[in-house]
Amino acid sequence: MVEVEVETVPASAASDPAPSRAVRGWLEPLLRPTELREGFQVSVHACPRLMLRELKHVFPAQFQGKGSDAAVLAVLTCQKSLMDLSQYGVDADKEKDRLLETFVAFAQQVVDALIARKYWADFIDPCSGLPMLTLLSNKVYSEVDGVELLLRYRCLSAGMCKILLHPAWGAAVYPASLFTTAPYEVVKEVLHSLPDEAWNVGS
Question: What is the DSSP string of 11-44?
Fold first, then answer.
């Protein structure tokens, strides 16, 4: 795997070995954006309290009776698209479908592996913003807001939409996320041992 340097991380934070150290209210990633394969970056984050308050509504059954200190990790993915995804039209729709299929294949493999290890895990449908496995949820999760919060990537406003800007790919990026209660070492093990089936679509 190739680790990608993120320009939003202060130099002082990059030299600090403690991955959960708060930097101006922001938590340094447990795993910085890393390419699992070309054009498919993954990062892992401890969810800050601000995000946990939102996740309690996105995954109500999981957070029932739990406070804002629940230990949940976010696994963010960013895929490099073949075109600027702020565009509209048939070509853009086909590209989004391709990237969606790739993410779902990846996320299903990761979530299945984590659930098999007795941890809760679920992923977001980027089309609807709703969880794929959690039932009775009508709270929409914003992928762009999540990446903006956890990776500090910039965004642009286009009418009523926010467009994510990747530091290297610009608007040619497709973000999607999954969440789990598994500890980081388990998540890292799963990411390093993905089978070929995780990449069987979208190529």
Answer: HHHHT---TT-EETTEEPPSEEEEEEETTEEEEE
